[in-house]
Input
Amino acid sequence: MRIAIVGCGNMGMAFAKSFLQYNLVSTENLLLIEKSADRSASLKQEKAGVVVDTIGPRVGEVDLIILSVKPQDFNSVHEALRDVIQPNQMILSIMAGIPIGQIQDKLNHKLVVRAMPNTPAMLGMGITGFTAAKEVDMTSLRRVENLINATGRSIFLEDEAMLDAVTALSGSGPAYFYYVVKAMVDAGRQMGFDDAVSSLLVKQTMLGAYHLINTADKSLDDLIKAVASKGGTTEAALRAFEQGDLAETLVTGIKAAQQRATELSNG
Output
């Protein structure tokens, strides 16, 4: 398969490296378009693919074009892309907030898949929600899905509007997790631990709890109850969380992210 990636920042290169790792594409068939001279030089040194700084005829020779530029930069590249795109080429957009219809209109091209990955994709442990234009056939969609799954796991959504919820829940989700971890590390520091010890206690706790969620045949409520004995320390903490409406605050924040994603999609 031949692939071009337009915009080789962290997420674009997460996809590129995953494709190479799983032998889904060879370096000679991976075209990396990066306008930054410094970034281009770095990519050439890494020998991650064929590196160019402009969109040219070679883009029209690939099977799949991945759009991973910043949303505000799409207007500066869509005309050059429109001039070289061929009718049978697939477009996979991982740009936040730009709907399929807008991409189709600006590129004058119908075969568009839109996806929302998250940053753990850089480790091959991401989760990506994706959807597709009605013109994309099932065979092509499965090929794109296979590529996406090289970065972790994926979920297909019939309704493109639900990508705003994906953006809020899993796209932005790592930041919420880091926010809670940071608060816990800060609490450890206030209780007398140095940064290293507090960080180790919290990170290993999070790692172990994650594996329990995935392997224990219990609901989240049951897992909480298994730690929170009546009248004990965990119950005291949970009571304080409830008094501060922590759960509702988190839900409100995530819904605010969804609302902002919708605003961006609607221009």
Summary: Residues 3-160 form a domain with the Rossmann fold fold (CATH 3.40.50.720). Residues 195-215 form the longest helix (21 residues).
